[in-house]
Design brief:
Helix content is 50%, strand content 11%. It is mainly alpha-helical. The strands form three sheets. The chain has a three-stranded antiparallel sheet, covered by helices on one side. Strands 4-5-8 form a three-stranded antiparallel sheet. Helix 2 packs antiparallel against helix 3.
Length: 340
Amino acid sequence: MAKAKQLPSGSWRVQASLTVDGKKITRSFTAETARKAEALALQWQELTKEERNEDITLKTAFERYISAKENVLSPGTIRTYKKMTESNLQTIMGNRLSSLTQENIQRAINIDSATRSPKTMRNINGLLSAVLRMFKPDFVLRVSLPQKKPTEMYIPTENDIRKLMSVVKGKKLEIPVLLAAFGPMRRGEICALTNNDINGNTVTVNKAVSRNSNGEWVTKSPKTFSSYRKIEYPDFVIDKIKDIKGNICPLTPNTITNSFNVLLKENNIPHFRFHDLRHYAVSILHAMNIPDKYIMARGGWRTNYTMNNVYNHAMRDKIDEFNDKISQHFENVYNCENSQ
């Protein structure tokens, strides 16, 4: 920046220049003193640089968005967002925000859709939308996403649970299974549970264990506000945990999953996820005509969206029972008609 020069009027003027997108921009600043004129010029240069720096790459926008949310979102969510940044939308991550168009975003979505599930693509699109709202608020994202595919869910039957109870008895997985199947509690919630969270038959869920962005297991607040809840357990569950001091289940969520898979395989129990014990619990409550509002409170859901789309399924053995009743009824109608 050039030094200020005094004008015939007695004022001081300085010319400042800055190169933006290959073009040189020059501005003049006048003040009653040389120091003030130079300060105005310097301020203009810094502000202009800052404005230009807002035209950052999409990847930088993702990273800054994640950093801004570091202490607001759960460690697991932050970790997931960082993984998305490194592995998704790679054809446009190097693009500056000013060069983003509906077309190049759609092409990036199309490329990723070839190797990722519709659910994953919706998660990616959700993060992209949030980033653009923060750094390019005037841009309205309009992309087409792959159609959802119906998923075949296995809900453990009563027979599965009875067999599981018999083989898990006395093993390190017994308590996690009881808390998940008859609660229902999530893996992370089970791993964070301590004796201070138990009062009589009531278990208070107020924290969870999950991985942070460095892959370390940490105890944090629950997944959502609705995850804070109290669950009344039957005596046979409380009897297993009431005398334990400290952590009720000194395992990590991954250890629970891996050990559970081995247990099912070794005992010829149909494969299902540990998380599916929650499906079993909710299905039982639903079959008992327990109101959805109570089921939501017990399971830690804010809305009935999850239940309507996932949990409100009749158990597999009940489906067979109802199908038999339907077939028998129609057969009776048919035989009655033909006997006349």
